[in-house]
Amino acid sequence: MPPKGFKTQEPEVPPEPPPPPLEVNSEALEFLASLSKEEIQLLYFSETLCMVSESGQPLGEYTVDIRQAYFLTTEGEFTLSALVHATSRGQLDEIPCGTSISGYVSWSLETYEQHHHEFIKFLPMAFDRKITLMRRKGNMVMTRSVKEGEAVKTEKFKFNLNIMNGFISESANLVLLRVMGWRRKVPHNAKFLTFDAEGKLCHSTYESLGFQTIQLGSERTEAMVVEQTMHSDEDIPMTWQYYLLADGHLAKRIQVGSPFSCIITKKPIMREEDEIEPKPVFGKKSLDWEEDPQLFAIFRDRKISAQEELQASHTTYMRRHPEAQTLISDFLLFLLLRQPTNVVTFAAEYFGPFARNRPPPPPFRSSNRPSPFRNVSHLNPWNSLPEEKPGPSSQ
């Protein structure tokens, strides 16, 4: 027994190891890898749904707009992305409430940045929640601010991007649903990652509930029903049902357990993929331009135009250099007066004094007059060879 007055020290219980990080399965990663820029760009449009109660009373509007935009990264570079903006405004039991989502996502639905704002103006305990997601230096940084009445609580969390593969934010979810509606296909047994209402990572799954014919105004059309479930570890699962048309338009949105839903009242103009026609191939055809009236007319016009341009160029040059006209006139006059037999030699003698390297003429006339032509003997390679001396045998 231990001595009196001493307490027995209980052995320390080691803390439980943290749970392993959640992971997506291969089906989800393969689906995200199959997305392309060209497919996402087909889904750029805006749509508006009417929020109605269970009795059909209008409560507000739900708008989704996806368009192309540039996102400024932390490195200061602009990258092309999809800008998603969704808003809902309405009243429940005469209490104003609403949600807005704005985010930039890549072609593979990676979230660059997102701002989520939700409010319920129930006095005196008004509720306001703002959640911001931003990619910073290999992490997804979440800033979460909750205001209930006058109390404000702000938290900040970091999630390493290595464990965020297959993460689908609210913005990316809206694009993903349009892709499923466009493809008319839901990835089987795919498990994605998302954040629950408390900002914790959890699994998100999608399941096809088949096709259903719905009434849109005066028309009936077929919609594919997709059910999304968010499996939170700290709360009950949350489920939504989406009715998607063939081009990705959202015809109806239901949150299971919610007193209202969102529907469209008129069938939208259906979008179709543009068919790119092959380029026509034209075979080579021999053309005789002299026999073709059109080609011959083009040739004649261009020839006349070229002659006129050349003549105008010559006229301009002679106008700028009147000394050339005087020099040529003097030479022709002297040529006609002398009428030499060898015109070339006469011209060389006439223009010889104008040469810079011409040696000066002798002061007295001689029968050995210098040639008016340039001496080209220095261009003969044989002139540079040394003179051969006679050998002993030649003596």
General description of the model:
β2 (58-72) and β3 (78-92) form a beta hairpin. The model is unreliable at 376-385 (pLDDT under 50). The relative contact order is 0.08. Strands 8-7-6-5-4-3-2-1-14-13-12-11-10-9 form a 14-stranded antiparallel β-sheet, covered by helices on one side. Helix content is 21%, strand content 35%. It has 395 residues and is of the alpha+beta class. The protein contains six helices and 14 strands. The protein has helices spanning 26-33, 37-41, 170-183, 293-320, 322-338, 343-351, and strands at residues 46-53, 58-72, 78-92, 95-105, 111-120, 127-136, 139-148, 151-160, 191-195, 201-216, 219-231, 238-244, 250-255, 260-263.
The helix tally amounts to 6
User: What's the arrangement of strands in the largest beta sheet?
Assistant: 8-7-6-5-4-3-2-1-14-13-12-11-10-9
Number of strands: 14
User: What is the ordering of alpha helices and beta strands?
Assistant: HHEEEEEEEEHEEEEEEHHH
Helix content bin: 10-25%
Estimated radius of gyration: 46 Å
